[in-house]
Amino acid sequence: MMCILACVVTASGYAQNGTLSLKQCVETALNNNISVKQTGLLAEAAKADWKKAKANLLPDVNGNWGYGWNQGRAIDPFTNTYIDQRFSSSGAGVSAGLTLFSGLQLQNLIRQTGYAYHASEMEWQQSKDKLTLDVILAYLTVLNNEDTWRIMSEQAEVTHKQVERLTVMVEKGAIGSYMLSDMKGQLASDELATINNYNALQTAKLNLAQLMNVPYNKDIQLERLSEAELLEIYPVDAAGVYAASLQNLAMVKAVDLRVKGTHKAYQVAKGGYYPYLRLNGNVNSNYSSVSNTLTPTNITEVTTGEYVNINGDRAPVFKEQQNYTSHKISYNNQLKNNIGTYVGLSLNIPIFNNLQVTTNVKKAKLTAKNAEYEAENTKIILRQNIEKAHQDMVSSYERYKVLQEQVVQYKESFRSAEIRFNLGTIVSTEYLITKNNFDRARLNLTQTWYEYIFRTRILDFYQGKLAL
Question: Of 442, 452, 435, 306, which is closest to residue 390 (Cα–Cα)?
């Protein structure tokens, strides 16, 4: 949910008068911005890596199956003997493994990817915060240019009425034509300033439309700020803003999480020095097309080739022989009957691996140190930016208070000069000087008012108050 200060009008969607609210501008930009969406995808990818790292603690289970044809001398998988004929064979199995110890690499990898994921989330939030700030500043720029254009239009209208009045007086011979020429020259200057400010207004609207990623519409209307709000000095000093930014700003959280992640990466690399213990197991079976089963049928007598002498006669010797019929063993029955299992432990002890682990540990340590430097530098730059932004805010506020009094005085001076000029007691040059002083003071006051609001929004951003 957005935190917008009181001077920003809060509204959901379009207001009843059809103007566009600041809230809807921000929501539209966040929904349409491609860079923000891409940063969100990076966060989703980091989340997937985190889930993958946690899944490494689970056992891996894989199934396998194969079927092939053999020609010539080969080993029969059913009898495990050599045969020399054409046959087909098949094998199927399931294997599983579980890492029991790996130098805590898996546990540290989970923490590393977890920090990376949360850092990506913060970077995504930072991109949304930055876009929100850009939209707010663009929105205020449109309002500022609208007010400037309105003031310039009013100035041109006042000058135009004077030109009309002086034209009549010149025609009647009441005044010299030089006074009319002075006023016409001023009118041309006012009209040129009006055109320039109108073009600046349309440029500001174009910039806002591009931030929202919507087609440019020159007639777009925005809700106004509450001008009834009395501007007071920003209540938080630079030190307070910086302290809040360290706690709330997504950018700071992101760099701190990156540092933690690199330290865990260093622990992962150091885990390569430790033994690797794994529990393995599998269940397998096989099939051979030449495998048969024998079924007993009848018993017959067959000669043995031997003889016995009976009364001088040679009589052959017979023996009983069991006869069988051969049947192919089906595929399913062979797989069922040939099941074998295995369970075992494997231990891998690193002794020498071409200094790969040592190199990885050293690089991981350097990466962690560099991340610390980046985090420190980010905070230094942040503190400097906050100090400058706060000083700019104070300067804008002080100028605004002075300009308020200046406008009051120049307004009275111009009112008096206009009366005297209309009565003919002063010349056009004196009148134009007074008018230009008043016009310039009004413009300066308006621009400084918006500049002060710009500065306060930037300080809000640094404190994380613009986060959705």
Answer: 452
* Helix (H) / strand (E) containing 93: strand 87-101
- Bridge partners of 442, per DSSP, are none
Q: E strand or H helix at 2, and its extent?
A: none
CB 407 within 8 A of CB 383: no
Q: What is the dihedral of CA 381, 144, 9, 132, to 10 degrees?
A: -30
**Can you say whether residue 13 is alpha, beta or left, with left for phi > 0 and alpha for psi between -120 and 50 degrees?**
left
- Any idea which residue has 């033994």 for tokens? 275
| 3 state SS for 297-321 | EEEEEEEEEEEEEECCEEEEEEEEE
Mean pLDDT of the chain: 86
Kindly report the pTM of this predicted structure: 0.78
Q: How far apart are CA 222 and CA 164, in angstroms?
A: 35
Token digits of residue 21: 């609210």
The conformation of residue 105, written as its DSSP 8-state character, comes to H
* Structure confidence by residue, pLDDT tens digits, 140-194: 999 999 999 998 898 888 888 888 887 888 777 766 677 788 888 888 988 998 9
Taking residue 455's Cβ as centre, other Cβ atoms within 10 Å add up to: 20
**Is 108 within 8 Å of 44 (Cβ atoms)?**
no
Percentage helix, strand, coil, to 5, in the chain? 60, 20, 20
d(CA 437, CA 337): 106
**Quick one: pLDDT band at residue 231, thresholds 50, 70, 90?**
low
Q: How many alpha carbons fall within 13 Å on the CB side of residue 79?
A: 12
Residues 400-410 have pLDDT tens digits of: 989 989 999 98
Between CA 234 and CA 142 the distance in angstroms is 23
Reported as a pLDDT band with limits 50, 70 and 90, residue 418 is confident
The C-alpha atoms of residue 68 and residue 288 are separated, in whole angstroms, by: 10
The answer to whether the beta carbons of residues 437 and 414 sit under 8 Å apart is: yes
User: In the block, which residue shows the tokens 């932004």?
Assistant: 389
Residue 288 is predicted with a pLDDT of 84
Where b means 16+ CB within 10 Å and e means fewer, 160-195 reads bebeeebeeebeeeebeeebbebbbebbeebbebbe
Q: Which residue has the tokens 């691996």?
A: 353
Q: Rounded distance, CA 357 to CA 256, Å?
A: 26
CB 327 within 8 A of CB 297: no
The Cα 245–Cα 108 span in angstroms is: 29
Phi, psi of 94 (to 5 degrees): -130, 130
Find out whether 437 and 371 touch, Cβ atoms under 8 Å: no
Q: How far apart are CA 446 and CA 457, in angstroms?
A: 17
